[in-house]
Design goal:
There is one protein chain. With 68 residues, the chain is an alpha+beta fold. It has a single domain, classed as Single Sheet (N-terminal domain of TfIIb), CATH 2.20.25. Helices cover 13% and strands 29% of the residues. It is built from one helix and four strands. A four-stranded mixed beta sheet has the order 1-4-3-2, with no helix packed on it. Strand 3 and strand 4 form a beta hairpin. The protein is elongated and about 45 Å long.
Length: 68
């Protein structure tokens, strides 16, 4: 059974990746408005308003992992 998408909720991309890469799971549009704030990437569909977010590692964390 397929889960209904609530456009008022922000889904975590790690838990709910795109069914079709780069397209909204709710309306299948590929037109988003995006922003990054505090290391969190937010992508919101311009048609239906459904949104997904993705947490990014800090640059310092990535560099330390590469060094050690």
């Amino acid at each position: 059974m397929e889960q209904e998408i609530d456009p008022d909720k922000v889904y975590d991309y790690a838990e709910f990746p795109d069914k079709v890469s780069g397209r909204c799971d709710n309306c299948n549009l590929a037109y988003f408005k995006s922003s990054v704030t505090g290391g969190v990437f937010l992508r919101e569909c311009r048609e239906c308003g459904s949104a997904t977010s993705k947490q990014f590692e800090s640059l310092v964390s990535v560099l330390l992992r590469l060094i050690y």
